[in-house]
Amino acid sequence: MAYLLKGVSILGGSPTDLLIHDGVISDKTDGNAEVIDAHGLVALPGLVDVHTHLREPGREDAETVQTGSRAAALGGYTAVCAMANTSPVADTAGVVEQVWRLGREAGLVDVQPIGAVTVGLAGKQMAELGAMATSAARVRIFSDDGFCVADPKMMRRALEYVKAFDGVIAQHAEEHRLTEGAQMHEGEVSTRLGLTGWPAVAEEAIIARDVLLAEHVGSRLHVCHVSTAGSVEVLRQAKARGVRVTAEVTPHHLLLTDEKASGYDPVFKVNPPLRTAEDVAALRQALLDGVIDVVATDHAPHAVQDKECEWAYARPGMLGLETALPILLSVFGEKWDLIADRMSVAPARIAGLAGHGGDLTRAGTPANLTLVDPSARWVVDPGQLASRSRNTPYAGMTLPGRIVATFLRGEATVLDGKVVK
Ligand SMILES: NC(=O)N[C@@H](CC(=O)O)C(=O)O
């Protein structure tokens, strides 16, 4: 199938015609190509998420690879990295290959499994990193996300081990001794509400330790969901010294603050917690500066019974795939170069996903791209989302930017805002 995108704006540039042919961007002509009127639409390289929870195997009532892939394609994504905290945990070649195969069967986005660092995410015994790396799933990112790799000796050994295949350890930075019983960010609001706090230093202390470990062994560290101004400062200094560290921020940490907890609606409960307005400002600046490399959704679907209950009993986490780009547009406006780099080019590089995050102006680039209508406004209706879960913190909000089409290797996965298969 060939497509001719008439009058499309590549990254906000002047209108041009873009031909998708044989799975790549082409500079030839094709009289049989399906013509799409793309005037007013912006083409971006397909978005890449380095942090997605797809819940399969184990919690198919919350999400499956199929439903999560639909949500991803509708959000403009062409690749997502599936976190390892499934049941069973993705800590063996068998489980990562299963997730990888399910992704291929769904066929809507490239599903790249992340492997666990430790067996069962328990922090005691290193998982079979080498077997996962050499499996059909070719795992490169390893993470115990949901839990911190707390033991510094384990963290050091894992960082050393993945050097052999240019892997990266993605750390959920949380000093658990400082967050016991925590329900939200520790600060003025938690004091007022009488909820146990999750202090910023619990994140910052682990990042500080880990950048020193990564520097010591000369290995690659990636920091998941950075949420505090102090973490940004630690990262800024580490990067200035040349440490091989990359970092992500979520859309919700770029927009929402701990004031959201005041209504005790568990849809706003998330790990790490929503922080203060000062933290939000620092995270925005860090993304602009490049101290934070990428936006990652931390898409964390939860079944109704796990979310619609008392705050203290609710699971942490919120949906992200279908709203990430609109949230970025509402925070930063139409900064297309920034959005393309932080949501596609840089994440593809970190995850080692060749073929994603390519240059759409070059013939031969794999046709992984998404078309956005920046002038469209839409109201988030949880019932209309493709995810199997409903826990979006943006319900009822009017957001800018609608994903019109997404292409994976030249095949449309989304057209007219609807999934094609
Ligand atoms: N980010 C979240 O709030 N939740 C994550 C795991 C976690 O990091 O706690 C999940 O898997 O639900």
Automatic annotation (TrEMBL):
SUPFAM superfamilies: Composite domain of metallo-dependent hydrolases (SSF51338), Metallo-dependent hydrolases (SSF51556). Belongs to the metallo-dependent hydrolases superfamily. DHOase family. Class I DHOase subfamily. Binds 2 Zn(2+) ions per subunit. Substrate binds at H53, L54, R55, N85, N271, H302, P316, G317. Zn(2+) 1 binds at H51, H53, D145, D298. Its cofactor is Zn(2+). One of its GO terms (biological process) is 'de novo' UMP biosynthetic process. Pfam families: DHOase (PF12890). The gene is pyrC. Pathway: Pyrimidine metabolism; UMP biosynthesis via de novo pathway; (S)-dihydroorotate from bicarbonate: step 3/3. InterPro entries: DHOase, DHOase/Allantoinase_Hydrolase, DHOase_cat, Dihydroorotase_CS, Metal-dep_hydrolase_composite, Metal_Hydrolase. Keywords: Hydrolase, Metal-binding, Pyrimidine biosynthesis, Zinc. The active site is at D298. This is Dihydroorotase. The lineage of its organism: Bacteria, Bacillati, Actinomycetota, Actinomycetes, Micromonosporales. It catalyses: (S)-dihydroorotate + H2O = N-carbamoyl-L-aspartate + H(+). Residues 42-229 form the Dihydroorotase catalytic domain. One of its GO terms (molecular function) is dihydroorotase activity. Catalyzes the reversible cyclization of carbamoyl aspartate to dihydroorotate. Zn(2+) 2 binds at D145, H172, H225. It comes from Actinoplanes siamensis. One of its GO terms (cellular component) is cytoplasm. Its EC number is 3.5.2.3.
